[in-house]
Design brief:
This protein is an alpha+beta fold. The protein contains seven helices and twelve strands.
Length: 325
């Protein structure tokens, strides 16, 4: 028979065990909450699977990927998979009866790797092409002085084609090396004259009106880089007008100075821009004759001058170029 003293001790021990159990339960709940927060904090998708393959734990990133978990091979520890147009690096690990799987979005990394590879290949090809193009350019200049008059348009067409190839080579080499501006002051009128001369050499079939700024102002910039940048916009506009159903077109450039920036806006009456979201992506051209470098280089040139290039919202044919004063 239990004495009153033994009963008191037993009750005391029961309270003590209950208190320890409550503390252990709180500690476990706190640990579980911490683990869930850590899992949620991770930038990649994470699943913890039970032995039967059911999901024991997953974070919100994993929930967003929906049925990706059904396409994974649990026997593989480290591999890549493509899901809904994006690339993921899959890693898995096993501990006791649980399998942990993570999926990291490497789409941007893959894109940069592909761009770097394409840039290296393009730069190599550009170097290889440059010498024969130089020879063709020299030979056509000599031929132009000797050819009979009725064949002169053929030679001029060859020169225009060579000019286009040369522009692509310069853009490719600049993209592979990076843009570096060597600034010095010059008059806008000088650059304007060079642009109009280059435009006449570019070649087009329709009647196009060029309305460029008439103000007199000084730019402290890299003149060669700005000529390349503005020519990208002018030739893009020419090509857009050439593809339109109209017999003529207009390219309008406006200028203002707000004290901090030279601000140019460029508008043309050509066909609308397709896929504007891809405008500033390398090697993705929105036109048939493009090489996908013109606009991204133009943006880099503007940024090298403390400014930027943007496509104004609400008007898909109006570009805004800023250059620091």
């Amino acid at each position: 028979m239990i004495t009153q003293e033994e009963l008191a001790i037993l009750i005391e021990q029961t309270y003590k065990v209950e208190k320890e159990f409550s503390e252990l339960k709180r500690s476990y709940a706190s640990l579980q909450d911490t683990v869930e927060k850590i899992v949620e904090f991770l930038p990649n998708a994470l699943w913890v699977l039970s032995q039967d393959g059911s999901v024991f734990l997953q974070n919100s990133q994993a929930k967003k990927l929906g049925s990706l978990i059904e396409k994974l091979d649990y026997r593989e520890d480290d591999y890549e998979i493509t899901y809904e147009g994006r690339s993921y690096l899959i890693k898995s690990s096993r501990y006791k009866d649980k399998t942990m799987i993570s999926a990291t979005d490497i789409t941007e990394q893959k894109r940069k790797e592909n761009l770097a590879t394409m840039g290296q290949m393009a730069a190599h090809l550009s170097h290889e092409i440059r010498n024969p193009i130089g020879s063709i350019s020299l030979l056509t200049s000599t031929l132009k002085n000797r050819v009979v008059k009725e064949n002169l348009p053929i030679v001029e067409e060859i020169q225009k084609s060579v000019y286009r190839i040369d522009r692509i080579i310069k853009a490719t080499l600049m993209f592979s090396k990076g843009v570096e501006a060597h600034k010095s002051p010059f008059l806008w009128e000088e650059l304007k004259k060079d642009l109009l001369d280059a435009v006449s050499y570019y070649g087009y079939t329709k009647e196009i009106e060029f309305d460029l700024p008439t103000q007199k102002f000084i730019l402290n910039a890299d003149k060669d880089l700005l000529e390349m940048m503005f020519m990208n916009f002018l030739t893009n506009a020419i090509d857009a007008i050439e593809l339109s159903d109209d017999e003529s077109g207009k390219i309008e450039m406006r200028y203002e100075n707000d004290g901090n920036y030279h601000i140019f806006t460029i508008h043309d009456t050509g066909i609308p821009i397709e896929h504007p979201e891809e405008l500033f992506e390398a090697f993705k051209s929105t036109k048939v004759k493009g090489n996908g470098l013109g606009l991204i280089l133009s943006k880099q040139i503007a940024q090298a001058h403390g400014g930027d290039v943007t496509l104004l919202t609400g008007n898909k044919k109006l570009f805004r170029i800023t250059l620091q004063v």
